[in-house]
Amino acid sequence: MVEIKTNESLAAMRESGRVVARALAAVREKAAPGVALTELDRAAREVLTEAGAGSPFLDYHPDWAPVPFPAVVCLSVNDAIVHGIPDGTRLADGDLVSVDCGALLDGWAGDSAVSFTVGRARPEDTRLIAAAEEALAAGIAAAVVGNRIGDIAHAIGRVCRGAGYGIPDGFGGHGIGRTMHEDPGVPNEGRPGRGMKLRHGMVLAIEPMLIGGGTDDHYTARDGWTIRTLDGSRASHAEHTVAITDDGPRVLTAL
Predict the structure, then answer these.
(1) Which residues contact 37 (CB under 8 A, 6 or more apart)?
(2) Is 83 annotated as a binding residue?
(3) CB-CB contact of 150 with 195 (8 Å)
(4) Which residues are listed for substrate binding in this entry (predicted)?
């Protein structure tokens, strides 16, 4: 079931989105060679605490996961695509980091992700990150009243495939509102004109994930959470929570 949000609800979701944006900014500012992933998680926790917000990530335990998620951010480094668990690993110069964060504020969720390089960037990583951001922008541009979910999926997939990157099958965006994951699902590849029709008041988390090596193959690491590229190539992830409105798409997780 898809909940259509009122304008008042969209305004409340914008506030939770701002918290997410500030948390991501804090993580990015803290990230540097030698910094442990747990320190980045702590930086995000401080932002959530100061805002009086909860975390939809912390202790989240879907059926497929062996244990509840133990942090407020997913930190996926280099060949990790998504769902990386923050641990004592210290960042190295040139690492590609994808950070996914959520917040719960006054009963409404926000969800966003960003990828960046720590220290000196490899040119191929810069291109990979830029492609993820371009794919996200294309998906957002297609998120207009009267379009369909397939139009968003097609826009994302066209950018990813056009740049020669892989798309991990089975992972994509989702509806969001009172909980982090709601209907409908938003694939990162699909046929235009197919799927649910977009209406004013729908809110979607749109999140392209790209595999640098060009294949779609991935596997789940021993921790039961982290999804890694099978070929060992690097990955990037970009995400925003987006409201569908009569005035066009409204990004709720922008700073």
Answers:
(1) 75, 77, 84, 86, 87, 88, 89, 90, 91
(2) yes
(3) yes
(4) 83, 181
Distance, in Å, from the CA atom of 58 to the CA atom of 72, rounded to the nearest integer, reads 5
Determine whether the annotation assigns residue 111 to a binding site.
yes
Q: Predicted confidence band at 1 (pLDDT cuts at 50, 70, 90)?
A: confident
Residue 181 annotated in ligand binding: yes
pTM of the predicted model, to two decimals? 0.97
Write down the residue that tokens 């709720």 correspond to. Answer: 252
Q: How far apart are CA 93 and CA 243, in angstroms?
A: 37
241's enclosing H/E stretch is strand 240-243
Beta-bridge partners for 220: 227
100 is in an annotated binding site: yes
Q: Is there a binding annotation on residue 174?
A: yes
Cβ 206 vs Cβ 190: under 8 Å: no
Looking at residue 166, the DSSP 8-state letter turns out to be B
- Cα gap 104→51, rounded to integer Å: 10
Whether the bond into 184 is cis, omega within 30 of 0 = yes
Give yes or no for a contact between 197 and 204, defined as CB atoms under 8 angstroms apart.
no
Residue 235's φ and ψ, nearest 5 degrees, are: -135, 160
What is the Rg, in whole angstroms, of the alpha carbon atoms belonging to the chain?
A: 17
Choose among 82, 78, 91: nearest CA to 40.
Answer: 91
pLDDT digit string (tens) for 149-193? Answer: 999 999 999 999 999 999 999 999 999 999 999 999 999 999 999
Q: CB–CB of 98/227 below 8 Å? A: no
